[in-house]
Amino acid sequence: MKLSTLVPIIIGSAMSASVYADVIFEDNFDSGVSNWDSSGNVQTDSSYSQAGLSAYLKETGQISRTVDISSANNVSLSFAMASRLLEDSDYCYAEYSTNGGATYSIIASLGNGQDNATFYPSVQAISDSADSVTIRFRASAGTADHCYIDDVVLQGDMGQVVEQPVIDVEDSLSFGSITIGNQANKTLVVANAGQQPLFISSISNLSGDFAVLNDQCSNTNVAASSACNIELAFNPQSLGTQSTSLDVNSNDPANPTATVAISGYGSQDQSQGYIENYQPLSGSGVVSRSELTYQQLNGGNVTQLVSNQAFALPEQAAQPEHQFEGRITLNNPESAGVGQFTEHEDTYRYTSNADDPRKHIPPFSYDFVQTGTHLIPVQRGIQLNSHEYWEYILEPGRVWKETSDNGKSRASIPFSLMQKNSNCVHNGLMTFTFDNSSMSDVAYQIASETCLYYKFDMWGSVAATYQPQSVTNSLDIKQAHQAYEASKIQTKPIEELVSDFPSSNIDVANFGHSSEVSPEHMTLYGVFVDDVHYVGGCGTRQGLHPYCERLRVPSYSTAKTALAGTASMRLELLYPGYMQSDLTDLIPEAAADPEGDWLDVTPDNAIDMATGNYRLSSGYLSDEYSTANDTGFFLVLDHNGKLDYSVSRYPRKAQPGTFFNYHTTDTYIATVAAQNFVKAERGQSADVFADIIVNDIWKPLNVDLGTQDTRRTYDSVAMPFGGYGLTYLRDDIIKITKFTSIDRGQINGQQMLDAAELEIALFADPTSPPLDVRSDSKYYSNSVWSKLKTLPGGCEQHVPYMSGYGGIQFVMLPNDVIYYYVSDNNEFAWDLALQEGAKISPYCQ
Known about the structure:
By secondary structure, the protein is α+β, with helices and mostly antiparallel strands. Helices cover 15% and strands 35% of the residues.
């Protein structure tokens, strides 16, 4: 049981009665360690405590607290301390000081042999001559050694209990990403958690582009259980991350100066260069059209597959005469009898000759705005809906005029269907004519995908309704769209590598070569060199896709790097020691595992997929490709089900960090740990994907808005999948891969990922050898793959890459060239591209 505020002091073993004293200070850590000054690796723990929580110290972690005892006599300090896994040089210390921390006396210490998690009680008398006592607990141990403190009580004889003010204020406050020249305001709440008035004398040290707008706290007495507010502003004048601190000075004897870390990011103004008539057209409008004609869209029925060029902006497209803003609703597109369907690959036998919901597009009712000749969906990212199998992802398209459209304007948009609870993406197109109040039927066609096991064509037309209406924040949406378009990396056809590097004798056929990736299964590919993105691919079963730059592709397991691994390395930079913390302290379900299989497993081990927990080791994919993994994890919709399987499925068979076994469940556990940690640090509204990945990294990189979404569990938890479930545009692939490799985790010179952990991920730290995958000279480290290659020039080197199910490869060549492809025939080779890349610049220096 936890100690109450009336504590018996046992004076000598011969006494038969207890003498009761006043409690001056006590803490059982059930509310955390906020009553203490802390440094290093300090957390709380529920697995090892006398009840509730204990203070948990690792490495050089320590906590201290100064208490006024000037009015007390017969003062004594009691506590309980435990340890685990200590070695000969590791100790846990309890100490006190009566001279303000100038010197300390050891009360108790635990070392090797006292490390079986038993709590040892201690009592220490404090001299009556002392006016204050500083209590300190500290660890002097390694990353796998553990010290625990519980039930700290300071008591003595007093005329009355010394009541003190206690300042309660957040350790940090973030403004997030704010456009340069704009101002954002936030309120910092300063509360008094003590029993006496808290006098706040002043605030100080705020600097940079941060300012105090309204200070209601300085020179103010804050009553017990009350609070005051300080309103702060951030008005960034330059690009990048900014940080400062705010000191709140008060009469709290234990924390006279509370320091709050303040941060924000100055982002580019998306309205810069905004053009009302964006990308106007100057064609005659005379278009020779035999497919998707005005007559077919207005009262006809589209019954045949057509060339994708029927959806494309034609060469002679004229400026549209109408402005589209409002909602498009398709009238029962999921009904039987609507549209056509042809199957090309169905590994799991989803569909037969009978009608099936999979053969129809889902309900559709979405808002659009127009900027010049671009039509922009308001709802971006994965659109959850009532359809049993499909969810939309909508992309911006184009608007134009053709003279044969009876005075109407014409529009087309690319879209994708993503399988519910999965990551397969099927790419489609829609087109229609419209005026200021009405629209034609919508013709749609799906003739390509990135999906190993399910390939089909789906096409037809469906009646539609246009509801003109003003869209909230339409100007912001238009500005954001134009800003993204302006941010895209320059592209050239991949054939231009030959003319841009005339002395290199480049054979562009070796990028995406048919012997390495089957052409009919290649979605897209490209090469990035010297700030130019050379592009290829975009073929479909009905010709080239007309919106190749808007062709949405799945991440599959490249998300293990782009989300889970990147988030872990970001948290390591923000909160040093995070990656070496214990998963049992971050995930209660792991701590509650009855076999204790998750003891001493870290987030670092989890993103390495080297937790030591597995069933089969005959091949590194044996566990991953089991039927149990499909039914117990991948097909499960809710977080609790996914986590329960992930925690309980695999028994401990190896020391954590020593043996690689591919488990998407491990990456899910790493994502859950990061999510729980972020919420503990920043509040329950915080989210590891939205805050750590999107706000901190992807928005500054100008990643597409539709990419700033992820698959999540279908419940109130909405846990990001972590190991798959992202989607990209090809421009995003380059931006994210370049950030990871060429830019070494920096944005505009600002380090965004822990530099040491990123070097380990890129196989550039010889002191941290990677994990052997036991197949084809492959290795794995911090969520990144590599192949150990003898390169042109004769040197042997790791070539890092991201990899995704079905045939997705983002290769970071040693000469700051990026080669990538997205395909779906289980082909993963890039040896020819590796050889060809050396012609651009040498690998071996």
